[in-house]
Amino acid sequence: KSKNPPFMQWTDEKIAALAPNDSTERRGRTLASSAKWNTIATNYEAIWGECKGSGSQPYLVQIKLSGPKYKCSCPVRKPPCKHVLGLFFLFAKSSAVFKYQAPTEALKNWLDQQSTSTVSSASKTLAPVLKTEEAIEQAKLAKQKRWAQRVQLMTSGMDELELWLTDLIRQGIANTDIQKASFWNQVAAKMVDAKLPRISTYLKETHLLIQQNQNWSEVVVARLGALYLWAESFKKRNLLSAEMQEELYQSLGKIIKKADILAQHPSSKDLWFVLGKKEGVDIEGRSFRKIWLQGQKTKQQALILDYAFGSMGYEQQYIVGDLLDGALVYYSKAYPQRAIFESFESAKIYEKTTLNTYKDLNSMLTSYGKALVQNPWLFSFPVGLSNLKAFVNDKKELQIKDVKDRIIPLSNLKEAIIWKILAISGGHSVSLFGEWSGLHFEPLSMLTEDGILSFT
């Protein structure tokens, strides 16, 4: 029976990027053999199979190729499991062994559910509870009272922070590099009590950065300046517009529910190019993932920031180089950057993607300055730089310079990333995408003739 092949071309690299960790990827590859499966089939919209397991019953695996969406009957809680990856890897290398077969009724129903489910489960809200006008007003007043109490605590915390900063500057920063972690953690703990979690994290990060950077004094001055800006901005917040006040509160750690963002802010429809990905564990021990996107029509950039807790994985998977057709909603109106998807799917027609790049360091810094005018508390700025030359200096350190021979200050990079940049560039000009912190550039991906190459 003749069918059109799926529009999404799944490569080995793209499938590997879905794996929650290296161990699951390795185990998945061991299942990428038809001998490991009782049955495998496809209707060109999805693939499915029965994987031989240790028990009497095989594991049922099904994958919708657009998205992708997947399901497995195994008990693993952190998807995709090794069985999903194994079937996917097998499909990528030997799609011919997947014979056409009409899906079962249960599988067809599951595929229909995936097609109609456009909003992630995290953004779905419970059915509204009918309330009387009086109850609604009471709830509104209670919320306002809780916020007023929090602002009072924040005000006290900011006053204490400013006093600490003033004392530190008066004494000088010459001995800052030899201060123990407790020097920063004591103040950080007070900021938590004052409902200022972002400042607490920032203080702990500052101590870590001092230990990691030889030019630590530059880091200290910049970060103490940022802390003072926060304190002064909060003190004079009534002079700010309502949008800028909200930007300030969010930068200090105010949490906005995703459902509220989706309900209150307009969406932006576009083809979103996945430019770069950064994953790690922050100073508080939380697993985080940052996904940078650029709209192909609007040229807007967006940041998807997710956190994973415990053994739970991320709800959605993103692959650098993919093109997503969808609508996203920005958290902020003052300076749109962080966003969440209202809905998306892999683009059905792969248009030629473009990345906005700066021609040199000066033009990038000019745009960064304009962004700071819109949001003075901006700590991550997406940057594409073209016409770069990578080389190793006399100290065996990676150096990158722009077309005007200005050196781009880099963050501390893993050795694997350094050698990847040097090997692929081969002395020729390259284009890199990454994050600018205000002091350093951290490359996340490279544009090549074959597409975009992720460093993570």
UniProtKB/TrEMBL annotation:
Keywords: Metal-binding, Zinc, Zinc-finger. One of its GO terms (molecular function) is zinc ion binding. This is SWIM-type domain-containing protein. It comes from the Bacteria. The keyword Zinc applies. InterPro entries: Znf_SWIM (IPR007527). Pfam families: SWIM. Residues 59-92 form the SWIM-type domain.
